[in-house]
Structure to design on (294 residues):
Protein backbone atom coordinates (compact mmCIF):
# COMPACT_ATOMS: atom_id res chain seq x y z
CA UNK A 1 0.00 0.00 0.00
CA UNK A 2 1.46 3.42 -0.92
CA UNK A 3 2.58 5.61 1.92
CA UNK A 4 0.35 8.61 2.54
CA UNK A 5 0.63 11.72 4.69
CA UNK A 6 -2.01 13.90 6.30
CA UNK A 7 -1.62 17.66 5.94
CA UNK A 8 -3.38 20.08 8.24
CA UNK A 9 -3.06 23.68 7.07
CA UNK A 10 -4.76 26.31 9.19
CA UNK A 11 -7.50 23.81 10.07
CA UNK A 12 -7.97 22.36 6.57
CA UNK A 13 -6.99 18.72 6.10
CA UNK A 14 -5.84 16.86 3.00
CA UNK A 15 -4.12 13.56 2.24
CA UNK A 16 -1.21 13.12 -0.15
CA UNK A 17 0.26 9.97 -1.67
CA UNK A 18 4.05 9.75 -1.55
CA UNK A 19 5.82 8.73 -4.77
CA UNK A 20 7.77 5.96 -3.11
CA UNK A 21 8.39 3.89 -6.24
CA UNK A 22 9.94 6.81 -8.13
CA UNK A 23 11.71 8.44 -5.18
CA UNK A 24 12.46 5.71 -2.63
CA UNK A 25 15.36 7.37 -0.80
CA UNK A 26 13.69 10.76 -0.60
CA UNK A 27 10.43 9.27 0.63
CA UNK A 28 12.25 7.18 3.25
CA UNK A 29 14.04 10.25 4.68
CA UNK A 30 10.89 12.34 4.56
CA UNK A 31 8.83 9.62 6.25
CA UNK A 32 11.40 9.30 9.02
CA UNK A 33 11.24 13.06 9.65
CA UNK A 34 7.50 13.09 10.35
CA UNK A 35 5.65 14.55 12.16
CA UNK A 36 6.57 18.09 11.16
CA UNK A 37 5.04 21.35 12.33
CA UNK A 38 6.04 24.49 10.50
CA UNK A 39 4.76 27.77 9.12
CA UNK A 40 3.80 27.65 5.47
CA UNK A 41 4.69 30.77 3.52
CA UNK A 42 4.24 31.77 -0.09
CA UNK A 43 7.23 31.26 -2.36
CA UNK A 44 9.05 34.35 -3.59
CA UNK A 45 10.68 33.07 -6.78
CA UNK A 46 8.77 29.96 -7.87
CA UNK A 47 5.29 31.21 -8.68
CA UNK A 48 2.05 29.80 -7.35
CA UNK A 49 3.11 27.68 -4.41
CA UNK A 50 3.66 27.71 -0.67
CA UNK A 51 6.67 26.23 1.07
CA UNK A 52 8.14 25.09 4.34
CA UNK A 53 11.74 24.37 5.27
CA UNK A 54 12.54 21.15 7.11
CA UNK A 55 16.07 21.96 8.19
CA UNK A 56 16.89 18.42 9.36
CA UNK A 57 16.27 17.20 5.79
CA UNK A 58 18.59 19.73 4.16
CA UNK A 59 21.35 17.83 2.35
CA UNK A 60 23.29 19.32 -0.55
CA UNK A 61 24.69 15.91 -1.48
CA UNK A 62 21.39 14.10 -1.81
CA UNK A 63 20.55 13.17 -5.43
CA UNK A 64 17.26 14.50 -6.72
CA UNK A 65 14.99 11.59 -7.53
CA UNK A 66 11.87 11.72 -9.72
CA UNK A 67 12.99 15.07 -11.13
CA UNK A 68 10.69 17.86 -12.12
CA UNK A 69 11.28 21.54 -12.73
CA UNK A 70 7.69 22.63 -13.45
CA UNK A 71 5.47 21.68 -10.51
CA UNK A 72 2.22 20.06 -11.58
CA UNK A 73 -0.80 21.48 -9.76
CA UNK A 74 -1.53 19.62 -6.51
CA UNK A 75 2.04 18.37 -6.38
CA UNK A 76 4.43 18.43 -3.47
CA UNK A 77 8.00 19.10 -4.53
CA UNK A 78 11.12 18.62 -2.44
CA UNK A 79 14.47 20.37 -2.86
CA UNK A 80 17.04 18.55 -0.75
CA UNK A 81 19.63 21.33 -0.82
CA UNK A 82 17.35 23.47 1.34
CA UNK A 83 15.05 20.87 2.85
CA UNK A 84 12.31 22.80 1.07
CA UNK A 85 8.88 21.26 0.62
CA UNK A 86 6.71 23.17 -1.88
CA UNK A 87 2.97 22.84 -2.35
CA UNK A 88 1.93 24.06 -5.78
CA UNK A 89 -1.58 25.42 -6.31
CA UNK A 90 -1.07 26.71 -9.86
CA UNK A 91 1.72 27.58 -12.26
CA UNK A 92 4.96 27.02 -10.38
CA UNK A 93 8.55 25.99 -10.94
CA UNK A 94 11.65 25.16 -8.93
CA UNK A 95 13.54 28.47 -9.06
CA UNK A 96 15.69 30.65 -6.88
CA UNK A 97 17.61 33.90 -6.93
CA UNK A 98 20.49 32.39 -8.90
CA UNK A 99 18.68 30.00 -11.21
CA UNK A 100 15.60 30.91 -13.24
CA UNK A 101 14.95 27.17 -13.38
CA UNK A 102 16.28 24.25 -11.37
CA UNK A 103 15.19 20.78 -10.21
CA UNK A 104 13.10 19.32 -7.46
CA UNK A 105 11.91 15.85 -6.50
CA UNK A 106 8.23 15.20 -7.21
CA UNK A 107 7.69 13.86 -3.72
CA UNK A 108 3.94 13.48 -3.49
CA UNK A 109 0.57 14.34 -4.95
CA UNK A 110 -2.40 15.56 -2.94
CA UNK A 111 -5.42 13.33 -3.42
CA UNK A 112 -8.17 14.60 -1.13
CA UNK A 113 -9.71 17.99 -0.40
CA UNK A 114 -7.46 19.51 -3.05
CA UNK A 115 -9.41 22.70 -3.71
CA UNK A 116 -9.89 23.68 -0.06
CA UNK A 117 -6.28 22.89 0.82
CA UNK A 118 -4.84 24.90 -2.05
CA UNK A 119 -7.18 27.80 -1.40
CA UNK A 120 -5.42 28.04 1.96
CA UNK A 121 -2.00 27.82 0.30
CA UNK A 122 -2.96 30.57 -2.15
CA UNK A 123 -4.19 32.74 0.73
CA UNK A 124 -0.74 32.87 2.31
CA UNK A 125 0.26 35.44 -0.30
CA UNK A 126 -2.24 38.01 0.89
CA UNK A 127 -2.67 36.88 4.48
CA UNK A 128 0.81 35.73 5.44
CA UNK A 129 2.15 32.49 6.88
CA UNK A 130 -0.13 29.79 8.22
CA UNK A 131 0.58 26.84 10.53
CA UNK A 132 0.90 23.45 8.85
CA UNK A 133 1.27 19.97 10.32
CA UNK A 134 2.44 16.93 8.37
CA UNK A 135 1.84 13.49 9.86
CA UNK A 136 1.98 9.90 8.70
CA UNK A 137 -1.33 8.54 7.50
CA UNK A 138 -1.16 5.02 8.81
CA UNK A 139 -3.67 2.18 9.14
CA UNK A 140 -6.31 3.66 6.85
CA UNK B 1 17.23 65.71 -13.02
CA UNK B 2 17.26 69.45 -13.81
CA UNK B 3 20.08 71.89 -13.25
CA UNK B 4 19.44 75.04 -11.27
CA UNK B 5 20.83 78.45 -12.16
CA UNK B 6 23.36 78.09 -9.34
CA UNK B 7 24.66 74.91 -10.99
CA UNK B 8 23.28 72.44 -8.42
CA UNK B 9 21.06 69.59 -9.50
CA UNK B 10 17.49 69.49 -8.34
CA UNK B 11 16.47 66.03 -7.22
CA UNK B 12 12.82 65.24 -7.37
CA UNK B 13 11.63 63.10 -4.52
CA UNK B 14 8.50 61.56 -3.08
CA UNK B 15 7.54 60.28 0.35
CA UNK B 16 6.87 56.56 0.70
CA UNK B 17 5.06 54.94 3.64
CA UNK B 18 4.68 51.20 4.20
CA UNK B 19 3.22 49.61 7.33
CA UNK B 20 3.83 52.72 9.40
CA UNK B 21 7.40 53.30 8.23
CA UNK B 22 8.34 56.15 5.93
CA UNK B 23 11.26 57.23 3.80
CA UNK B 24 12.05 59.59 0.99
CA UNK B 25 12.53 58.25 -2.54
CA UNK B 26 14.88 60.12 -4.84
CA UNK B 27 13.47 59.93 -8.35
CA UNK B 28 15.60 59.24 -11.39
CA UNK B 29 13.92 61.54 -13.84
CA UNK B 30 17.13 61.72 -15.85
CA UNK B 31 16.90 57.96 -16.52
CA UNK B 32 13.15 57.71 -16.89
CA UNK B 33 11.61 61.13 -17.59
CA UNK B 34 8.27 59.91 -18.98
CA UNK B 35 7.71 57.29 -16.29
CA UNK B 36 8.73 59.57 -13.43
CA UNK B 37 6.42 62.28 -14.78
CA UNK B 38 3.56 59.77 -14.88
CA UNK B 39 4.35 58.62 -11.35
CA UNK B 40 4.30 62.19 -10.06
CA UNK B 41 1.04 62.83 -11.89
CA UNK B 42 -0.46 59.77 -10.15
CA UNK B 43 0.19 61.07 -6.65
CA UNK B 44 -1.05 60.72 -4.04
CA UNK B 45 -1.35 56.94 -4.19
CA UNK B 46 -2.66 54.65 -1.49
CA UNK B 47 -2.86 51.10 -2.83
CA UNK B 48 -2.41 47.47 -1.74
CA UNK B 49 1.13 46.15 -1.75
CA UNK B 50 2.03 42.49 -1.69
CA UNK B 51 5.04 40.27 -2.08
CA UNK B 52 6.18 39.15 -5.52
CA UNK B 53 5.77 35.46 -6.33
CA UNK B 54 8.23 35.17 -9.24
CA UNK B 55 10.67 38.07 -8.76
CA UNK B 56 12.27 37.37 -5.42
CA UNK B 57 12.84 39.83 -2.60
CA UNK B 58 10.49 42.54 -3.77
CA UNK B 59 6.93 43.75 -3.42
CA UNK B 60 4.59 45.00 -6.09
CA UNK B 61 1.51 47.16 -6.39
CA UNK B 62 -0.99 47.31 -9.23
CA UNK B 63 -0.87 50.77 -10.82
CA UNK B 64 -3.08 49.95 -13.78
CA UNK B 65 -5.29 52.93 -13.09
CA UNK B 66 -3.94 56.42 -13.60
CA UNK B 67 -1.15 58.07 -15.49
CA UNK B 68 1.36 55.22 -15.23
CA UNK B 69 -0.95 53.02 -17.28
CA UNK B 70 -0.59 55.58 -20.07
CA UNK B 71 3.19 55.27 -20.30
CA UNK B 72 4.28 53.62 -23.52
CA UNK B 73 7.48 51.63 -23.47
CA UNK B 74 10.37 51.14 -21.12
CA UNK B 75 13.04 53.68 -20.23
CA UNK B 76 16.57 52.66 -19.23
CA UNK B 77 15.29 49.06 -18.95
CA UNK B 78 16.75 46.68 -16.39
CA UNK B 79 16.06 43.16 -15.12
CA UNK B 80 17.80 43.26 -11.75
CA UNK B 81 16.15 45.48 -9.16
CA UNK B 82 18.45 46.28 -6.26
CA UNK B 83 17.46 46.78 -2.61
CA UNK B 84 15.63 50.04 -2.15
CA UNK B 85 15.03 50.59 -5.86
CA UNK B 86 11.58 51.35 -7.25
CA UNK B 87 10.73 50.24 -10.77
CA UNK B 88 7.73 50.35 -13.06
CA UNK B 89 6.50 47.78 -15.54
CA UNK B 90 4.41 49.75 -18.04
CA UNK B 91 1.67 48.22 -20.17
CA UNK B 92 2.99 46.07 -23.00
CA UNK B 93 1.60 43.72 -25.63
CA UNK B 94 0.47 40.61 -23.80
CA UNK B 95 0.98 42.33 -20.46
CA UNK B 96 -1.84 44.78 -19.86
CA UNK B 97 -1.91 46.91 -16.76
CA UNK B 98 1.09 48.29 -14.96
CA UNK B 99 3.04 47.42 -11.83
CA UNK B 100 5.20 49.27 -9.35
CA UNK B 101 7.99 47.19 -7.80
CA UNK B 102 10.12 47.88 -4.74
CA UNK B 103 12.99 45.56 -3.89
CA UNK B 104 14.24 44.96 -0.38
CA UNK B 105 16.85 42.33 -1.30
CA UNK B 106 17.92 40.29 -4.33
CA UNK B 107 15.27 40.69 -6.99
CA UNK B 108 14.92 40.12 -10.70
CA UNK B 109 11.79 40.99 -12.60
CA UNK B 110 10.51 37.63 -13.80
CA UNK B 111 7.36 36.15 -15.20
CA UNK B 112 6.48 32.47 -15.56
CA UNK B 113 8.21 32.48 -18.95
CA UNK B 114 11.42 34.02 -17.66
CA UNK B 115 13.10 37.35 -17.13
CA UNK B 116 11.49 40.60 -18.26
CA UNK B 117 12.44 44.25 -18.03
CA UNK B 118 11.27 47.19 -15.98
CA UNK B 119 11.96 50.90 -15.83
CA UNK B 120 13.92 51.99 -12.73
CA UNK B 121 12.36 55.18 -11.37
CA UNK B 122 14.10 55.89 -8.09
CA UNK B 123 15.71 54.72 -4.90
CA UNK B 124 15.00 54.97 -1.20
CA UNK B 125 17.39 57.31 0.53
CA UNK B 126 20.15 55.62 2.54
CA UNK B 127 19.14 54.63 6.03
CA UNK B 128 15.68 53.41 5.09
CA UNK B 129 16.25 50.10 6.85
CA UNK B 130 12.89 50.13 8.60
CA UNK B 131 11.09 50.49 5.28
CA UNK B 132 13.09 47.60 3.80
CA UNK B 133 12.21 45.52 6.86
CA UNK B 134 8.53 46.40 6.44
CA UNK B 135 8.69 45.30 2.81
CA UNK B 136 10.40 42.03 3.77
CA UNK B 137 7.76 41.38 6.41
CA UNK B 138 5.08 41.02 3.75
CA UNK B 139 6.51 37.57 2.96
CA UNK B 140 5.49 36.37 6.41
CA UNK B 141 2.63 38.72 7.25
CA UNK B 142 0.91 39.18 3.91
CA UNK B 143 -0.49 42.17 2.09
CA UNK B 144 -0.12 45.72 3.34
CA UNK B 145 -0.71 49.24 1.99
CA UNK B 146 1.75 51.59 0.34
CA UNK B 147 1.28 55.34 0.33
CA UNK B 148 3.18 57.63 -2.02
CA UNK B 149 2.90 61.38 -1.90
CA UNK B 150 4.75 64.32 -3.32
CA UNK B 151 7.69 65.59 -1.28
CA UNK B 152 8.73 68.48 -3.46
CA UNK B 153 12.19 69.24 -4.70
CA UNK B 154 15.39 69.93 -2.86
Amino acid sequence: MPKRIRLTLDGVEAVARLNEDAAPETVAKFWAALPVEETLRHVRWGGEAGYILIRKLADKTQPIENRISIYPPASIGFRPEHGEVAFSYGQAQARDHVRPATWACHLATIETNVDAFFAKVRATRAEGGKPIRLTREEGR
Amino acid sequence: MAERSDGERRMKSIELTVSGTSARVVLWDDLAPKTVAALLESLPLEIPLQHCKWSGSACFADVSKGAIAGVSGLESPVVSVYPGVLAVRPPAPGAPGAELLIAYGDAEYRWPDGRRQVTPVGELEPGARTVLDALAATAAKGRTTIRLRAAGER
